[in-house]
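Lab notes, practical 5.
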Amino acid sequence: MGILPTVIRQPAAKVWRERIRPFTGNFDGEPDFLVIGAQKASTTWLSHLFTQQPSLLKPKIKEIHYFNRHYDLGPRWYRSHFASSEQAEARALETGLTRLLRYEATPDYLFDAGAAARIAADLPKARLVVLVRDPVWRAVSGYNHMVRAGLEKRSLESAILGEDEQLEQARRTSPEAYRHALEFHSYVARGLYFDQIQRYRSHFADRDIQVLVYEELIADPQAGLEQLATFLDVPLTLPARVTAQNVGRYERKVDPGIERYIRDATDADTTALFSALGRPRPW
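Output from the prediction step:
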């Protein structure tokens, strides 16, 4: 059969997914809440826990990327990823629950500069879940993720210390180059959580934004789920077996100079974040 069938199948699947499937059913569902980030702060693990909750209706895929990459495909395409009213009613009869929530989880929404305004315009009543992680280990994990994906060839030191220069060079090159650099090579910048969350606070009430700390969630997932159950007003239970998801395999050590550099770059932001949250900073 050679390579031709594969070449044909890939565009055909894209046309089906983007242009045909949204018109094959009565897709009238939208998410009640979104997990918007941060990247490498356990959004995959939390989504895995959500798939095991009778009260939650999982999307067709975890990361839809509608509000940061695919907004041009329109709301019908977006809604095609969620359970319809008919499917929700069937699930309610099956579970005996009267309140079921749809959701999605795309960690890039937090970092993307335009996503907050788009989400607010399309889903003004949505609730938002944010996970934040020690910026040092978020940066190291993000770097190793890009190395595994073949998108980063530099050493950790070069990537971290050269981040600002690379972003500025990409900005001068073209909007496309800048978007690519922001998405795939922002290791320290993604750990500046305060400004990112402030974008959402300018559109959503604080009561509709729940910030969880990665290290606390991993240490006590039961407490984290109880906090989310209160926030979302649905029952959430911890599965008997909790398995970490999307865990990178790399040495959990970093040069003290690089750690100090990231700490210095993010310290003021971290202080501002936890001051706004009204709680002690955990790192």
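Observations recorded by the TA: The longest strand covers residues 127-132. The chain is about 50% helix and 10% strand.
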